[in-house]
Amino acid sequence: MRDILTIAIAILMLASCGKQGSQPSAVTESEENREAKVLLQGIWLDDETGEVSFRAIGDTIFYPDTLSQPSYFRVIDDSLELSGRRYAIVKQGEYFFWFKNPSGDVVKLSKSDDPLNELAFKHEKPQGITTYTSVVNRDSVIMFEGERYHWYITINPTKYKVISTSYNDDGVGVDNIYYDNIIHVSLFQGARRVYSSDFRKQQYSKLVPSGFLEQAVMTNMEYDHADAEGFHFNATVCKTDGVSCYLVGITITKAGSVSMKLLEY
Fold it and tell me: Which residues in the chain belong to E strands, given as ranges?
């Protein structure tokens, strides 16, 4: 009986060791190529174009454009790990850095000692879509068919992230992070509430492609006009670059019903 119990315990111990051994170990700080990481510190220029590619400070890489978010990086073995993506290092020295982009092309960079290149990282004007950091309120009184109406629009910034991945001239993927908005619209006739509700970009899924909505932010809502159909508002949904947008028309009737249609792309 004792021998059987001893064998059973040994089997359980072996099974436990097997499970632990099958789990992949996380990369520790000691496994990083610290020397390669130190060599990467500084401002790097693209050999082909002569333009600033990025700047490495500590464990963060900064980009010269205002849309690209700084990225945490590590050097593991012979690869540059950047935002979860790995790029094979072909050649590296104090003043040169070659790596392969996702297309397999070798990107050749040279370190710059010119202090003027630091100006590439000093931005005075933001680019892309307008980012709201506080609540924005708009309202106005209109007369329609002899009756007094009052509309209200409130743009509420949220913490809902919109992540848009772009690729720079070197083929390196960069995650750009923005935050979506929820826009509230109210319409009153005197003291009577005709309509009051929030609008989110997901409500336009029948008019705007889902792939576009995933990388877009509802940037604005404006009152347009009133006619026999009702009161017309225009909602703008834009990609984070601020170039590609959908304009959705929202009509609120006197009875408080709502309809939407695509006006412009």
Answer: 42-46, 52-57, 60-62, 71-76, 79-82, 85-92, 96-100, 106-112, 136-144, 147-167, 173-189, 192-199, 216-227, 230-239, 245-252, 258-264
